[in-house]
Model the fold of this input.
Amino acid sequence: MMIRKPQGNRRKPEDAKTFAVPEAAELLPFLLSRLSHTGRNSVKSMLARGQVSVNGRAETAYNYPLKAGDSVTISKKRIEEKPRLLGLSILYEDDDLIVVHKEAGLLSIASPHDTEAVTAYRQLMDHVRRQHPSNRVFIVHRLDRDTSGVMMYAKSEKIQQALQNNWQEAVQERTYIALVEGRVRKAEGTISSWLKESKTLKMYSSPHPGDGLHAVTHYKTLRTGEGFSLLEVRLETGRKNQIRVHMQDIGHPIVGDKKYGSRSKAIGRLGLHASVLAFVHPATGERLRFESPLPKAFLAPFRTAETS
Done:
């Protein structure tokens, strides 16, 4: 199998080892198979430190998909090229915070059953540790795996606690766009209920007032079509799966949300996008506002109806 040499005059780092990939595999298992005398944790550390590149580009994701013919290089020194972020882009960063746009399909943080998955948290941890080995990031809030949009991480436990303990006052705007099933008749409305979690970890609205956590969701209809509606949704409270439960409650589940009653796969993903996050900076007192554009897929069902 022939491996193409990198273009230009770049030289491989000293003491580097290069391996050809014979067949499709994930990066971590491939490295472990080639570095049989190196412990698993040591190999993970090499990835985190940016010592592994694929086809000349540094990669840190354990489950990065390799293809037959790829070239994997392991260096004893850190590769200077910054590893790319997968499904993630940084919108804002200072000494206290990182605000990002997360794509649908990326976990905010690893689940107990998938500890080696690529996550926003792991990638941002690698990002800040390249600046200084002792740096860390801390979860402030989460987006579901299949929800896209704006989210925020803290760079210290102090900032994390300041935001979480004062969340209702600090966050001035938290808006989502939801593509839901059916034609929503009311131009706007408010849904209020008490949310509880079942033994199967599914959230639901209790029929008994005061039984659970109070949740309030405001919505405004942006567009309706044959079988779908596009809503702007504003959270007054931020409970787990709140929008998904409340949309099911009014008979208009979010497209692609099988867990909460959807039968449609019209856009091949969950029809929920965190479009706006505005908050008061816990250290400076400055008001910051970030907006993520609506995914084009959310308009596809309406274009289809117009052309049919």
